[in-house]
């Protein structure tokens, strides 16, 4: 049964040259033992510094699969703990990259909606101290999924993840990531899911028309 392996928060911000223009970041998230409230467009108790590129209604919660983290561990030959991708939710038993744009998931008492893939940035590369990570992450095609909060609720490690509804369009997180990173999928192939995307993604898709 798909479930949460852990819920991860940035209890404090990180500083350093690698944090980019903002001078600080909330990417360093660690597992917590208590249940966490998901409210409207944010995760209670978490720190989001760069609100231009993170957080907000369509990127309220970031999720990453433990199976994909294990793939990176084998690839890089180093342990990767929960939260190392900057994810709020570490999942098990769910192919996040195969989730459909607009798919609804019940986790704990919250109702969430799959919204868009994570696009790697230089802060992520700096956090891992790996200059080539942006290219490696793009080539790997394992972006994880941002989630909208449709119904506020609380979540915790061990909670089951239930898919409530799956749109018929067939456009997955992996396809959206491929289109955005030059992986072979075209913007036109994302059109069937146009209405489910965030406004910025809709504009990007329409720019190809």
Q: What do you see in this structure?
A:
By secondary structure, the chain is an alpha+beta fold. The strands form three sheets. Strands 4-1-8-7-11-10-9-13 form an eight-stranded mixed β-sheet. Strand 9 and strand 10 (110-117) form a beta hairpin. It contains five helices and 13 strands. It starts with a strand and ends with a helix.
List keywords for this structure.
209 residues, alpha+beta, three-stranded antiparallel beta sheet, 5 helices, 20% helix, 27% strand, globular
- What is the helix content? 10-25%
State the distance separating the first and last CA atoms. 41 Å
CA-based gyration radius: 16 Å
The gross shape turns out to be globular
Report the order of strands and helices. Answer: EEEEEEEHEEEHHEEEHH
Strand arrangement across the biggest beta sheet: 4-1-8-7-11-10-9-13
Q: Care to count the β-strands? A: 13
User: Strand pairing plus helix content: what structural class?
Assistant: alpha+beta
């Amino acid at each position: 049964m798909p479930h949460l392996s852990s819920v991860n928060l940035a209890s404090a911000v990180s500083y350093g040259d690698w944090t980019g223009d903002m001078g600080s970041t909330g990417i360093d998230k660690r597992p917590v033992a208590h249940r966490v409230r998901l409210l409207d467009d944010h995760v209670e108790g978490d720190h989001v510094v760069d609100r231009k590129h993170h957080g907000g209604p369509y990127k309220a919660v970031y999720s990453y699969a433990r199976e994909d983290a294990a793939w990176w561990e084998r690839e890089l030959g180093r342990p990767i703990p929960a939260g190392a991708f900057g994810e709020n939710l570490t999942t098990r038993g769910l192919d996040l990259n195969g989730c459909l744009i607009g798919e609804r998931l019940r986790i704990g008492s919250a109702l969430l909606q799959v919204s868009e893939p994570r696009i790697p940035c230089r802060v992520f590369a700096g956090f891992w101290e790996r200059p080539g990570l942006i290219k490696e992450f793009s080539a790997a095609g394992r972006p994880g999924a941002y989630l909208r909060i449709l119904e506020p609720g609380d979540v915790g490690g061990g909670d089951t993840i239930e898919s409530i509804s799956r749109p018929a369009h067939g456009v997955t997180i992996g396809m959206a990531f491929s289109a955005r990173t030059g992986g072979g999928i075209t913007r036109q192939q994302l059109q069937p899911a146009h209405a489910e995307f965030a406004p910025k993604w809709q504009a990007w898709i329409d720019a190809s028309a």
